[in-house]
Amino acid sequence: GELLLCEASTVYKYIQEDGSNRGTYGKLVCTNFKIAFLDDDSTSNDNEPQFKNKIVGENDITLQCVDQIYGVYDEKKKLLTGQLRKYPEKLIIYCKDLRVFNFCLRYTKEEEVKRIVSGIVHHSQTPKLLKRLFLFSYASAAPNNTDGRNQTVMFDTLEDWRDELERTKGSVKYKAVTTNEGYRVSEKLPLYFVVPICVSEESILKYEGRGIPIWCWSCHNGAALLKMSAFPKEQDDSASQMQKAFLDGIYKTISKPPYELLKTDDLSSSLPSLQDIQTAYTRFKQLFLIDNSTDFWATDVKWFSLLESTNWLEIIRRVLRKAIEVAECLERQHTNVLLIEESATDLCCVISSLVQVMMDSYSRTKSGFQSLIQKEWVVGGHGFLDRCNHLHKSDKEEAPVFLLLLNCVWQLVQQYPPAFEFTETYLTVLSDSLYVPIFSTFFFNSQHQKDTNTSGEGFKTQSSPFRFLTVWDWSVQFDPKAQAFLNNPLYAEKPKPDKSQRKTTRFKHQRQLSLPLTQTKSSTKRGFFREETDHLIKNILGKRIGKFINSSDEPSNSFREFYDSWHSKPIDYHGLLLPCIDGPEIKVWAQRYLRWIPEAQLHGGGTIATTAKILDLMEEVQSLQVKMDEERSQAISGDIHSVPLLRNSARLSSLFPFALLQRQSIKPALPTSTWKDLEDEEDLVKRDDEFVDLCGDML
């Protein structure tokens, strides 16, 4: 379904590795799918990357991935939008995946320059209709021969919801309803969803689904996580009184003290607004859209102050803290939590997903995480089309809400790698897939919008329904070798209990659940853990912790006790996981944000160097076990063969697999004294540690 729209020959593409004007000549083309640079030099297979996307090449930019386009006129940069009177001598394209492309048009024919520049600006920046997306061109022409589901639960049938209720033991108090079949309740709600068993069909229909608690997940102790779309705030008194009475009746169906407790949390008042999130991310991404080496080293001097001023990491910290608060209510207080938001499709999705990743080990498997995204985001009605601004209709609606979730999940993945079946590379390619318009997953605002656009009637005289692909079929983008990078070889799989022990284990679990936890019994234990960890925390974190603790007394103390208590115990990778959120524990997702900046790469360093050594060791252990031909060899993961061999780990970049193998040494022109200071860094660290210890003793 791809059509060539315009092209230009003799275009010079700069290589970004250093400040020189080195580059390569080629052809710049624009299609209804992407902007692509076709290199004149035929590249040899020696430089073929180990991790290659079959859909989008390294010199390809999908139209939805274009962030901003600048033209250079007499060494001055100018943002290009709409109609152009004068055409630039140089074109700079900033991408949403943070790549930066520099094209020189000085040697290109004037007519071709006009066509290619105006074509690129028009097709990537101007508002368009939904059915003009390449998604529909591809879906009408592509053969439907892919697997599609790959064990991912799509939540588009009633059975999927009932199975999820059974899996989480929530079917006693909650029911899957068909009230919205034909979208007669609301176009924003999915066809099927789950509500408390006492909620009637009339109640769901009364306010088009507003004010109805919709079930997300049930904890092992019976407490449930729910979400609700709030009523509009500006209304007349009679309407608001009726709605208040309606809500009181609904709350009584969930809150039945002392057996069933309910805590409501209005996320619009307790978390940053979508506008704040968008502003913070816009500032944050500017730190990584680097044109050249000079710019990189200029910003490097004030890196920490620039990073802090964006407020992006602070937003991640606040979101993770909120998720821990919700987990505490569910796990320790056995209280139902109702998340409230205007539409319940933005921050509700973030918090509910994070809580499930933290509390449910199934959501930390690849298929479980994909099913979670389907349930809470795709079917749950998150407006991907508006929030990603795929149609360029309104910047006001744009906000990186899904990207915020992936950033938060990455914090957990890098803090507890063995707990996740997938890798940070998986999260990175998932974030990139937001801008690949051949998958329907991230290109609709709701299930209703997708269903109404699935019929091909009236579109290019095609009457058959469109065959949309799901992003969860990774074979469309990657071959098996590349897919191996998405799976964590060090994942601690959940051990399957022996049949002889199964009954005993289950019996103990049931007894534990049936005993009520009173405040008096639990407070002693929590106090013990509090005392044990206080001294350690003070030593490690010093006064930084004061900034983290809230000024409000009781909720903060309760939260802190829960947080400290959990962190003082050994980690169960298949149980509750709480992220570390103190001080510098919240980090920048280096692989996603720094992967295109050569200066930020550590050759032969980073986590990939460690992983390469471990994989070699695992391969050796497996080969020995095969030789011994023991029964226990079956216990070793069968995925080891599928893990690519990472030879010469000293040549690998820390941002592998996105950064290629080391080809040349890139060293900025810094004074010799500066390099000497960097080499003496170890001594400085040791002295700094001694200072921290001294401060701890003084405290």
Automatic annotation (TrEMBL):
Annotated Gene Ontology cellular component terms: membrane; sarcomere; sarcoplasmic reticulum
Q: Which CDD domains match?
A: PTP-MTMR12
List, alphabetically, the SUPFAM superfamilies matched. Answer: (Phosphotyrosine protein) phosphatases II (SSF52799), PH domain-like (SSF50729)
Keywords recorded for this protein, A-Z: Cytoplasm, Sarcoplasmic reticulum
Kindly report the protein's main subcellular placement as a broad class: cytoplasm
Localization per Swiss-Prot or TrEMBL: Cytoplasm, Myofibril, Sarcomere; Sarcoplasmic reticulum
- Entries under PROSITE patterns matching the protein: PPASE_MYOTUBULARIN
The keyword Cytoplasm appears for this protein: yes
Q: Which domain of life is it from?
A: Eukaryota
Gene Ontology process terms (BP): phosphatidylinositol dephosphorylation
Q: Which residues form the Myotubularin phosphatase domain?
A: 155-593
Q: Which Gene3D superfamilies does the annotation name?
A: Pleckstrin-homology domain (PH domain)/Phosphotyrosine-binding domain (PTB) (2.30.29.30)
The stretch of residues making up the signal peptide is none
Q: Write one Pfam family the protein is assigned to.
A: 3-PAP
Q: Which family does it belong to?
A: Belongs to the protein-tyrosine phosphatase family. Non-receptor class myotubularin subfamily.
Q: What is this protein called?
A: Myotubularin-related protein 12
